Amino acid sequence: MSDNNEKKTTDLRILRAVDRAIADLRRGLPVFVRGPREASLVLATEMAFQPELENLAIRSGSKPVLVLTAHRANVLHIMPTGEEIIRVEIEDWMDAPLMRALADATHDLDQPFRGPFSRLIDPAPESFFPAVKLAKLARLLPSVLAAPVALDNVAEIAGREDLSVIDMADITAFEETAAMRLRPVAAARVPLQASENTTFHAFRPEDGGIEHLAIVVGDPSRRDPVLARLHSECFTGDLIGSLKCDCGEQLRGALKALQEAGGGVLLYLAQEGRGIGLINKLRAYDLQGQGFDTIDANERLGFDADERIFLPAAEMFKLLGFKRIRLMTNNPEKVAGLERHGIEVTERVAHKFPSNTHNELYLATKKKRSGHYL
Question: Any idea what DSSP says for residue 106?
């Protein structure tokens, strides 16, 4: 087998394995996360009800712990350990509804006096870190219930219970592998209000995940830097007209600007809510309604302020034949992210719109805390 064919086989195996594990977590099923020296049986905390919690202990033969990100643990006043995750001992008085509430910050004000909680301070099993990453990939809250399992027992239990087994290295490699294995699957002319001469190109990750779209306005030259915009999908702003963000205005304004410039490219990326997914974005909106800004809301849920990666966008530009762009953005991270992946940004083009009473704090936070040029 050639090196290219061997790599493709490996990549597809990674994508299939992680995709199955993601689907099982979203169904409320436990999955094995396996490392070179140890393994764990994990369940997404937000999908844990009392039977699932009890079955986790029975199947693993050990006592589960609650695993939270350091961001989330800090909100719950659990002292840091210096690691990215915090493990909380599950005591007899702690049931499944409490586990779910501890993972979900929207319940914090409903139950403000919880705890104290006992954190474990010895080094965490290596499989616990990618287990939380797997929950993020599943667009679930970044928390799992995890129970250590002897490596020698994984195959027997997984076979008997028909459970997924995923190597921690595959979880770590998943996002980059999926981004590098985008393939064009459809293209069509779609006249828009902003420009009648517009072509949509769809790119599908080989894991079978949600497609990214490239909207090419006119017939821009591949020789000169092309005017371009990266736009992360925003169901609430783009489609419904939410006033909590400026996404809809940015989308329509970008298409208008591309038409006026004689052509360009808008990448419409399947990265809802800065990469946390629509349901978690709604949770973040709930927290914003309680008085937290957009960054604090994400971090209270256990996420980073921005969970997006820009490799898929870079690959799409390359597949379309564009290596040099003039990027419409107020976000310096987009410029840096594309340049890390081989796209030359020759110019940053300002792309901002007036605020309204509902998104003033959102825009001010992006400027003050995220360094946006607003």
Answer: G
> Cβ contacts of residue 109 below 8 Å, gap of 6+?
290
Distance CA 115, CA 94 (A): 10
**pLDDT digit string (tens) for 148-169?**
999 999 999 999 999 999 999 9
CA 354 to chain centre: 28
Residue extent(s) of CATH 3.40.50.10990 domains in the chain: 181-271+308-370
The pLDDT mean for the chain works out to 93
Q: Are the beta carbons of 65 and 199 closer than 8 angstroms?
A: no
CA 208 – CA 17 distance, rounded (Å): 12
Of 14, 121, 21, 129, residue with least CA distance to 68: 129
Residues catalogued as catalytic: 306, 308
Could you give the residue range(s) of every CATH 3.90.870.10 domain in the chain? 3-175
CATH code linked to domain 181-271+308-370 = 3.40.50.10990
Q: What Rg, from alpha-carbon coordinates, does the chain have? A: 22
Instruction: Yes or no: say if 232 and 310 are a contact pair by the CB < 8 Å rule.
Output: no
Longest Cα–Cα distance of the chain, Å, equals 67
Summarised one tens digit per residue, pLDDT across range 278-334 is: 999 999 999 999 999 999 999 999 999 999 999 999 999 999 999 999 999 999 999
Task: Supply the angle between the helices 96-103 and 50-60 in degrees, to the nearest 10.
Answer: 100
pLDDT at position 50, please? 92
User: 0.90 exceeded by the pTM?
Assistant: yes
Question: d(Cα 14, Cα 169) in Å, to the nearest integer?
Answer: 9
Q: How far apart are CA 66 and CA 105, in angstroms?
A: 15
Q: Which tokens go with 288?
A: 């914003």
Q: What is the pLDDT of residues 358-369, one digit of tens each?
A: 877 777 777 777
Of 70, 46, 45, nearest in space to 302 by CA: 70
Q: What is the token pair recorded at 234? A: 């925003």
What span, in angstroms and rounded, lies between the C-alpha atoms of 201 and 211? Answer: 10
Q: How many Cα atoms are found within 13 Å in the side-chain-facing hemisphere of 220?
A: 28
CATH architecture label of 3-175: Alpha-Beta Complex (3.90)
